[in-house]
Amino acid sequence: MMLPRLITFLALNSMASAVPSVMPRIAVTHSVLIGVPGQILTADLTETSFKITNKASTGAGSDYSWMRYKNSTDTVYAVNEYGSEVTAFKLDHLDVKNGNPATGSAGVVFLEFNKDQTRMIGAGYGSSMLDVWDTSVAGAPKLLKSVNVTISYPSSGPLGNKPHQALFDPTGDWLVVPDLGADRLLIADAKADSYKVINAVSLKAESGPRHGGFIKSDDRTFYVVACELSNQVHLYEFKYSDNGPEFVHLAEQSTYGPDIKPKNTTSAAAGALLVASNNRDIYISNRLSGDTEDNIAHFIFDAKTTNLTFAGSVPTGGVNPRSISFDASESILFVTNVAGPLGVTAINRCAASGHLGAKPFAGMKLTDLLPDGADPATVGPQFVAAI
């Protein structure tokens, strides 16, 4: 018979050999670009702490609420939602006032590059326009054309045409534009710089499609879109034909999960949507829900069954999360809260399961991000992107 002490020793030794050693955690710094009305900032996240590294005033009455970074020229393109200018400036300077501005349509709220970053599209929520910019060379972008979406598909609703996003499909030949005011998804031909709207699909009245994303699975393409007014997420197959692509509706459900409604159904407004590079995990920001904190919802797409399954939601540390962005490894989700105690937060993401951490592991106070004299009750961060 073994003595108890010997049994304990052998058991502990066996356990030690079965458990792999834990490697020391190496501190990695993640940099983000942040847009606030009247100010643009950069910040670094190291482990659990943010530090502002640079900031520049953009002037009173300005709101650079969407930006795109071109790595090959170290250029940031920023659009003033309250005006009509797109300004190019170097990332290391953040000097918007002395940057290279160009005039486009009013009320643009979204910018997106094509594959080689020689073209950039602006969605004019305030003007019903799609701006097409030449960004092939450094300096100010060159406006090639502005396409009025009301010509092909005028809205019959009270809001009018309100394009809120413009996203290239995986081939780069087509552009999908959620028209929030018209309750439509528009398809524009991006070949040969045409950008003519050639097709559209209608959603239910007062759906308000805001932001979407593409999912690629073998030889099939899907599109998922979050609707601001109905707080529904819709899944489509994006089918190609000789006459151009078309949408085939597959499913819809609440952005809060099956049969779940927000606490305040009057104010709630789904916002950003982000598809992970694994073409499986989808994240949607639920805004103005009536709770003390809003949340990010996680959905999982099954390519075999084409089912979209709600996997849970996590708080954002504030209210009205307008913008979300991955770091390069997609292990962190950055969030901006327009209101609440934390203006920018970071949430862990498991690359294997796609699940998000139960709460943000790092954050910056909203008041630390505002220009001097700004009222935190009315002004908060609008945009964040890892750089």
Automatic annotation (TrEMBL):
Pfam families for this protein: Lactonase
Record's keyword terms, sorted: Signal
Family statement: Belongs to the cycloisomerase 2 family.
Protein name from the UniProt record: Carboxy-cis,cis-muconate cyclase
Signal peptide: 1-18
Organism of origin: Xylaria flabelliformis
UniProt GO molecular function: 6-phosphogluconolactonase activity
Coiled-coil positions: none
